[in-house]
Records
---
Amino acid sequence: MDPQTTHVLLIEDNPGDADLVRLRLIEGKSPVKVNCVNRLSDGLASLSRETPSLVLLDLNLPDSRGAETFRRVMEHAPDVPIVVLSGQDDEALAIKAVHQGVQDYLIKGDISSKHLERAIRYAVERQALLRTLEITRKQQMEFKNQFLSHVSHELRTPLTCIHQYVTLLLDGLAGPMLPDQSDHLKTVLKSVNQLHAMIRDLLEATRAEGGKMRIDPRCISLQELVQGAVAMLRPTADEKKIGLEMGVDQRLPLVHADPGRVLEVLINLLDNAIKFTPPEGSVMVQASMVDADPGYVYISVTDTGRGISPEGKALVFERLYQDPDAIDNSRAGLGLGLFICREIVRLHEGRIWVLSEPGQGSTFTFTLPIYSLARLLAPVIVHQERLRPAFVLVRVDLAPLFSPPRGNWKETWQQCLEVLRRCVYLDKDLVLPPMGTSGAIETFFVVASTDLQSSGTMTTRIREQLERVADLKVKSTLTITTLPVEPPSGNPDATLEQQVQAVAERVTQMIKESVESKLLCAGKGTPGHKKSAKKT
Amino acid sequence: MPRPKILLVDDDPDLLRALRLRLRANNYDVLTASDGYAAIAAAQKERPSLIILDLGLPVGDGFVVLDRLQNSDSLAGIPVIVLSARDPQSNEERALKAGASAFFQKPADNEELLNVIRVSLGPGTAPMAAWPS
C-alpha cells in the first residue's frame, strides 16, 4: 500500500450515502483510496485481508445494529481507528462509542469534504498516539517487573552476608558474647528476618503482577494445614495475650490446593489479625462448607480488632495499601501481603473478601475448590462404556527415620512418586496426586482396577521398585496397605457418570478415614479404626 | 578419621570467610574458590567430599561448573549443594537436573544447610574412599 494514500474502508449499506461519502472523500486534497462494502460481515472479511488506515462505519447495517457494530469491528481490528457515520444525532450513543474507543462520531447530513478530511486525519493521528502510549505502558510495566525482580535478587547478597555474620556472633563462633551484646544482636537478626520477608514479598508481588506466579495443587486436608498455621503463630498471639482458636469442621472434604501457598495465605491473615487486635482480644480461624456453594470450602479468620473503614475495605487487597490509622506504623511492612493472598486464592480459582465494621473486628474469608476425584478416575475405572468389576485402594507411606527429615526429603519422595507411576498400568490404575501433609510422613494413594487377591503382584512390584531407590532405604521406612473398594450399590438405572461419581465418593471417604486414623494415631496415641486391611 | 573436605565456591569474599568459619566450627576442612574456573581446578586437584556452589560466578557460572563436574568421570560423584540468591522458581529444577543434589536460596537457614551437608556426606560422615589417580 502507498503510505501517502489514506486507505478508507467504508462500511455502509445505503448506496446513496456511500456515494456521497465517497464523493466527499475524493473531493479532498489528500490522496484517498476507498473500499466500500455494505455488510458488516464483508467489512470484517476485508479487515482480515488487509489493514486500512481507517474504518468509516455506519452503525445500522443489514447484519448488525447500534453499539454492537463498532464493538465487533474493534474486536476484529483493535488497532484501526474507527469513525462512526450516523444518520441520527444520538448524543448518548456517540458518547458511548467514544468511551469504548471509537475516534469520532459524525452525522451524515453535516459533513463537508474539508470537515471529513480533517476528522479522518486527526482520527488516524490520535489512534497512532494511543498505540504508542499503550506500547510504552507495557514496556514500562515489563521494565518495572524486571527491575523489581533484579533488585530483590541483588538485595539478597548483602543480606546473606549480614545474616551469616550475625548468626556467627550469636552462635558464639567468634568468641563468647556478653548477655547484653547477645540481646542487641538478636534485635539485629529480627530486623534481618523482617527485611528478608519483605524481599520475598516484593518478588512474589512482582511475579503475581506479571502473571508468573505458579501453584502446585495437590489433594490436601485443611485440618492439618490450619493446625500448622495456628501452631506457628501461637507464640506471637501469646506474647500479646490474644486468644487463638480454631474450628475446623471434621466432615470437611479434601481440597485441591497448593499446601505451601495456602499456608502462606493463612499465616498472612492470622498475622494481620493478631497485629490489629488489641491485647486480651481473640482471633478465630474456621473452615466449613456452605450449602449454597457446594464446590468450595470456606476458610475464615475473624478478629476482635478495631475493624476496617468502608474506604479501607475497598482497597485492602490492593498493592501497597496500608492502614492509615495503624497504631504502630514503624513496622507496617510493604502492604503486599493481602495482594499476594488475593493472587494466590485467584490462582486456585477461589475468592477472597472481607467483612468488617469499624470497632467491630474483621472477618477475612477465602474459598478453595474441593477435590474432584471423579474427573481423575473416570478414564481408568471405565472400560468399554462400563465400570470395571473391582478396585482396590493402595496406600504407600514413607516415614522419614529422622525428624526433621535429612537431606532433600522433597526430592526423595518425588523420586518415589515417579517410581510409583512406573509400577502401575496407566490405562487402569491411577496414582493420585500426592497428599499434601504438613507433617514429614509422605502418603501416596493408588486406585487400581483389580481385586484384593490379584493386587499382591502389584504391591510386591511397588515394594521391590521403591526399595531400589537409593536414598529411600537409609532415610525412611516404607509401609504399603491395600484396601478393597466396595462397588457402588447396584442401582440398575444409574448412569455411567453416576457410577463413577459413586466410586469416587467411596474412595474419597476411604482416603479421608485412612488419613484421619493416621492423624489420630500420630497425634494422640490412640489406636486407629478397625479395618479389614491387608498389609503386605 | 580425617575430616571431610568441603569446597566452597562464591564470588563474595566476605561470605566465603563467614561460611568457612561456620563449617570449620562444624568439623569440616574448607577450601574456597571465587570463580568457576578456579572451582573446577580446585575440585580436580583436591577431590573434595562435597561442593557448595553459588550460581552467579565470574569465569564460568555455576551451571558451567555443574556441567563440567557431571562430565568428568572422577568428579561426577561429588555431591553439590547450590547456594544462590537466584529465584528458585526458575533455577532450582534446572540446577537439580544439572546434577546438584540440593538447592538453597540465600539467605539460607544455617541448621538446614548443615543438615543437608551431613546427609549428603553419607552415614557416619566417613570420608570418601581414596580416588583412583
Note: Residues 76 and 94 of chain B are 17 Å apart (CA to CA).
---
Amino acid sequence: MLLSAKQDWLGNVRDDILAGIVVALALVPEAIAFSIIAGVDPKVGLYASFAIAVIIAIVGGRAGMISAATAATALLMVTLVKDHGLQYLLVATILAGVLQIVAGYLNLHKFMSFISKSVMTGFLNALAILIFMAQLPELTDVTWHVYALTAAGLGIIYLFPYVPKIGQLLPSPLVNIVVLTVIVYLFGIDVRTIGDMGELPDTLPIFLWPDVPFNFETLGIIFPYSVSIAIVGLLESLMTANVIDELTDTESDKKRECKGQGIANIGSGLIGGMAGCAMIGQSIINVKSGGRGRLSTMTAGVLLLILVVFLSDILSIVPMAALVAVMIMVSVGTFNWNSIKELQTNPTSASAVMVATVIVVVWTHNLAFGVFTGILIGSLFMAQRLSQFMYIESDYNDETDTRTYQVVGQVFFNSSDRFIGFFDFKEAVDKVIIDVHRAHFWDITGVAALDKVVIKLRREGADVSIVGLNEASETLLDKFAVHDKPEEIEKIMGGH
Amino acid sequence: MSVTPQSVILAGIDGSNFSDAVIDYAIWLSKIHQSPLKLLHTIEHSHHSEQVHHEGNLTPNMKEHLLDELSDEERQESKQLIADGKRLITNAKQRAEQAGVENVIAKQRHGTLPEALSDLESEISMVVLGAKGEDHQGSKAGLGTQLEQAIRAISKPVFIATTSFSEPQKLLFAYNGSPTSQKALNLLKKNAFFDSQLEIHIVSVQKSLADATNLVEDARTELQAAGLNIVAKAMTGDPVKELTQYQQEKAIDITMMGAFSHGKLHGFIFGSFTTQMLLESTTQFLLIR
C-alpha cells in the first residue's frame, strides 16, 4: 500500500509535471466557460477546478485522471443559480459531495455494469452537443469580427501542432488564446472579453460557509439538484476512469473514486466553488501528454490557481471568441464520430439506445435522465430478445389419449403470453403432461402463466400433470451468488 | 477425473547475478523433494510512454488513436521483454535438466513477482528467490524492493539465495516459540525440507537463559524423535547479533526462521527483524510464513 502510493505519486515525476502544465493551461478556459454555462462568475469555476483537482489528486481512486468544474455538472445548476443564487449552489455542491460519499460506501459504483456501450456513446455525444449549444449565445447577434476570430482560433488549435518543433512544445489552445488576445488588444477590436462575463479571482480562495438559512425549505430547494449533480458527477467520473484504465492498461479503485469525488465537491463548495467531476477530454489530454500519476492532477490544480490569481488582469482582456474556439474543440473531441458511421452497421436496438440517450439529454439538459432512458430501453430490448429463447414441442399418444407438451427455454414476464399461446386448449384429450424440466421459470409471472394453463386445461376436462417443476423453478430464487459457481450454473442450465 | 497436479518448487528467474544461484538451489531442493521445478519469469510493464505529445488539443477520435498508439508501443515493449525472459528461462531449464531434474516447467507471466506468486500460490510448495533482483544488482547495500512484498504475498516457505551454490551441510533454525516458528518446527519434523544428512542447529536467543534452554530442549526432543541430526544452543542478548555471530562461528549454510510475522506498519516504524537478519547475514535463508 505504502509502496503503491509512492509509485502513484513519484513514479513518473518529470512527465507528470509537464502533463500537469499542459492540462492546467487548458483547464483555465474550460473552467471559465463552464462558469458561464452555470450562470456564475468565472471565479466560481476556477476555484472549483483548483479545489477539485488538488483534492482528487490525493483522495481519488484513479491516478492520472483529471477532475475539475465540468459542463455535465454545470448544466444541472442553471435554474438553481437563476432562481436562488450562488449561495444555494454552494450548499447544493456540498450536499452532492455528501451524497457521493454515501454512494461510495454503498458500493453504487457496481451499478455501472448496467451502462452499455451504446448508453456511454450516447452520453458523450449528448455532452458534446450540449457543450456546443452552450457556445451559441456567444455566436449570435455579434459582429463579423467574432466569427473571424473564432475561425482563426480553431485554425490555430488544429493546425499549430503541425508547425515543426514548437508545434509539439506549446499547447495549441494556449497559443490560440495568446494570439487572439494580442490581435484584439493591438487593433482595439470591440468584442466581448472574459472580463465582461463576471468577476475573476484576484485572491487565493478562502474558507466560507455558504450563507443560506439551514432549514428544510433550503433542503427542499437544493436536494433535487444535489441528487442530479451527484449522479451525473459519478457517472462521468466512473466512465472516465474506465477510459483511463483502458488507455493505460492499469486498474483503478472505483469505490475510492466515488468517495473521493464526494470529498472534492465538499471542498469545492466550502471555498466558493461549484460542483464538478472527472473530465473525459482533459484526462485523455493528460495521458497523451505523458501524465500517469497523481502528481499530474495536483500540478494542474495548483498551477491553475497560480495562473489565474497572478494573471487575472491579462485574463480579463481575453476575447470570448478564443474561449469559444477552445470549447468547440472540446465539443468536437468529445463527440464519438465513429458512432454516426456505426448507426448503419450496429444492430438497430443499439442505435436506438444511443439515439434515445442523446435525445433525452439534449431535451432535458440532464445527462442522468438520458442514461436512465438508455438503460431502460436497452433492458427492454434484452428482455425482448430473451423471450425468443423458448419453444414448446408437443406429442400425442393415441393409446392413452395423452397429449405431452415439452417446454424448452426461458419463461418470464415477457415470454409468458407466448408460452400460453403454445397450448391447444380446444383439443379434447384425457390426459395432459406438461414436461418443464428443460424450461426455466425466471419470475412469478412465468409461474402464474403455468398455473393459468393448468387451470384452463382442467376446465376442459383433462387430467394434468407437470413433470420436472423442481428443476425448472430453481431459477426463481433471487440467490444470485449461487449462479457464480460453474457447477451450479451447469446444474441449472444443463438442459441446453 | 482431473488429478490434482503435484505442487511445485517455484524459482523466480530474472537477469540478475543471483539467478544461477537461485536455479542451483532450486535444483537441489526439487531433487530432495522429488517435486517438479517451475521456473518463472515475470514481465513487468513500465506503463511509461516514450511518445508524449504536448500539443494539448482535443482532436476527433483522439481516444481511439491514443489507444492504438499506446497499445502498439506496449506491445513492442512486451515482445522484447518476453523474448529476453524466454532466453533466461530456456537457459535455466537446460541447466536444471542437465542436473537431472526430470520435471521442469518454464513459464512467463505478466505483472510483478508478488502478483504472480499470489496468483500461483495454490500450486506452490516452496519458492526460491534471489536476494536482489535485476534492478538492484549494482547497489551494494539493501535488498530487492520486491523481496519483502514477494515474501508477504504468500504463506508458503521462501528460500532466498544470497551466494552461489555449494552443497549445504548445516542449517541454523532460529526458534523462539512463536506461531510461525512452531510451524517451521513442524515442517522440519515432517522432514519436509531436507534429507537427514543436514546438521540442524536449533538456536534460541531469549531474555533469560532458562527460557531459551527450555525452548531449544523441547524442540530438540521433538526433532530427534523424528530422526534428525540436532545441535541445540540457548543464548541471551541481541538476537540479530548473536545469531549472525553463531552463523559465522559454525559456518552455517542456511538460516531458517519465521518471517514478517508483524504487519507492514510495524515493520515500517520499528524496522523488521527479518529484514535486519537478511541484511546482516551471509547465509542462505529459508523463511517460513
Note: Strands of chain A lie at 67-69, 276-278, 390-397, 402-411, 431-441, 463-467.
